[in-house]
Amino acid sequence: MHVKYGEDFQLQLEQLFIKIKCDFRGRREGRFGIPQKCLCGSDVVISTAHAGTDPVRRFYCCNSNNTLDGRHHIRKWWDEAAMMDEVNVLIEKVDELSNKVQVESDANLSNLNGFVSRPEMETLRHNLQKVVEEIEQLKETIRDPNLVEKMKKLEKRDAHRSELQFKIAVVVSVVVIFMALIIWYMK
């Protein structure tokens, strides 16, 4: 099935993608939300702060090993502010895209009557309804006031799990070394 959309629809779609790309530029550059690239162009990684009262506090930093090069490098705490910026961006985008989907789908479904058979039209309507329901579920998930707290708990659990795995690896290594020394000594 090939459906040809009008030039206005294609132009609106292109403008929407350009707007989304521009909106996310500030996020990529680390001005708000979760940074994707450092100001120097290197990738951003998550590190753990080892000083202060909260030793598992995480932060975003530059992956470059040369931080003394005189260039600006990103160092941003992974906290509620970054997460809330990210959630707010997602809420805006989901609202904008869901409104766009609803308007465009209504217009295009009415235009498709001459091009598409009735069973295909019903399938399209059914699929569109599924998409609208998924968007509503995503909106509810994003607007959950406990979302940041849940993400923090998951992060702490992962940090605890990594610490436990390290401790187990150390104990196993010590046992293996101890057993090797016993075998070597008995020879």
From TrEMBL:
Protein's UniProt keywords contain Metal-binding: yes
Organism: Thlaspi arvense
Keyword Transmembrane: yes
Keywords, alphabetical: Membrane, Metal-binding, Transmembrane, Transmembrane helix, Zinc, Zinc-finger
Stretches that traverse the bilayer: 166-186
The protein's name in its UniProt record: GRF-type domain-containing protein
GRF-type domain: residues covered: 38-81
MF (Gene Ontology): zinc ion binding
InterPro entries, per the entry: Znf_GRF (IPR010666)
